[in-house]
Target: ATP-binding cassette domain-containing protein
Amino acid sequence: MTISLNQTGKRFNYDWIFRGVTQTFREGQRYAILGPNGSGKSTLLQVISGAIQHNEGVIEYGTPEKPIAPDAFFRYCAIAAPYLELIEELTLTEIIGFHLQFKKFLPGITPAIAMQKVGLEKAAGKQLRYFSSGMKQRIKLALAIFSDVPVLLLDEPCTNLDAAGIEVYQQLISEFGGNRLIIVSSNDPQEYFMCEHFLRIQDYKK
Ligand SMILES: Nc1ncnc2c1ncn2[C@@H]1O[C@H](COP(=O)(O)OP(=O)(O)OP(=O)(O)O)[C@@H](O)[C@H]1O
Model:
């Protein structure tokens, strides 16, 4: 899976958040979008995901031989982000079951294994409304990283995690990242420890 941005820009009203982003994101590579608070990291990640529209430039998914329509890209990616809400009425077991109706897990990952890998096996029957913020973040990471998709988009993946949670995150990426394309928006080196490519949002302020 390849994602190509060509002179891509996004504005809110008259405010350009970034302009002129030209970058190809390739299979198996790990990219970090860096920048201070409010600089536009989440916005760029959401533009890449197709969740919000860009205002100029072109974004292409797939390869020239096998292009993917922008409105079908959501099937190929999984996202973990602070602004994505979980359904609080559901239990952990139910939210995993709900998720699996749309995206299956990687081969060999059962709901029980997923819960155990993020240290939540004892909370299987608990409603999400009673989860701590760190527990919720662990679920979001599990749902995204265990999804059997070629692209992972992670927005501030260690939000609300304690030291043990950060270790869990890093272990999950190392063990299950595989040959997937991973893009992280972050300003914390612990979150982008695995990245070899860096985009600085400040380079795209014109
Ligand atoms: N829907 C919106 N309408 C108007 N402005 C917006 C909207 N969403 C974001 N912005 C603005 O776009 C800018 C970039 O926000 P964004 O959330 O992408 O930054 P960020 O780099 O991810 O920040 P942080 O590190 O704090 O998460 C901010 O100035 C924000 O106020």
User: Anything to note?
Assistant: The chain is about 25% helix and 25% strand.
